[in-house]
Amino acid sequence: MSFTVGQYIANRYHLTARLGKGSYGEVFKVTDVIDLRSKALKTIKDGDQNSAEVRSLNALSATNGIQRLFDSFNLNAHLVLVLELYTADLGSISGKQRFSQRLVSKIGFKMVEILKQVHSAGILHRDLKPENVMIAWDGEQATLRLIDWGMSAVFVAPNGQRVRVRDHDYVYAAAPYTSLALSLGLACTEFDDIEMLRNMLMSIRRLYPFNDESPTRQTALKLQFQNHPENVLKGRNKFLLPFAREYEEQKGRGVLRYDALLNCLRGSAKFNESTNFVLHFGRNNRISLQ
């Protein structure tokens, strides 16, 4: 079955626009004919209700900063997820807007707060990048939402025991934004989410220290950064150096201290941590974030 604009799915969701298409499926904007709200509908070929994405979204349903799952069902060899719809993602905005030190530090601060909650629920995201951080806007203020939980995994069981995370299904080992450990094929821990957040903060500052066509070279560049982050985080980007160094020290000790990471970001640039973000809409549908 192919999903096309104009269709009604499950006699409830009217497909009004295609938002994106990938190797695993598509994302549509839909109107829910029951509550008349616009939502996102994601199709995943050969997916099932017991997928990591469904389990994680259900487990994190009460967590701030996580995309809301309204409905899920199987239809003609596809898993269909009905999700909260957002305005834009950090990747598309940062590609057109130069993010200030203050804005990047505030984004990092809010994301560490979100990851702290996610990890306290025993879940890892494993796919942090600007395109997976969306902006939710209520007409006045904007907040961050972490989406795309298809690579998520449980690392703490309900009884509190740590679980070794599977690694045979991790398909992004060769991606520049992936952590060093995952590039080396090691099992994922909560440190890897923080490391990918660090990489994300650099990318929205238009710093791409690990971009290389060779996966081997990418890994070597990540190792160099681990040992000497000051070679990359200098000049106008030096404000991220305390965060990078604090993370590496914590990783070396094997104890993740979120409050210390938050303090590093708090001190890196002046921002109001108690307020949300603001979206501005300009000509030609240009969106900027403050």
UniProtKB/TrEMBL annotation:
Keyword flag DNA-binding: no
Residue ranges of coiled coil: none
Keywords of the record: ATP-binding, Kinase, Nucleotide-binding, Serine/threonine-protein kinase, Transferase
Domain Protein kinase: 13-290
Pfam families found in the cross-reference section: Pkinase
Database matches in PROSITE patterns: PROTEIN_KINASE_DOM (PS50011), PROTEIN_KINASE_ST (PS00108)
Matching SMART domains: S_TKc
SUPFAM superfamilies given in the database record: Protein kinase-like (PK-like)
UniProt name for this protein: Protein kinase domain-containing protein
Molecular-function annotations in GO: ATP binding; protein serine/threonine kinase activity
InterPro entries assigned to the protein according to its UniProt record, in alphabetical order: Kinase-like_dom_sf, Prot_kinase_dom, Ser/Thr_kinase_AS, Ser_Thr_dual-spec_kinase
Key word Metal-binding present: no
Domain of life: Eukaryota
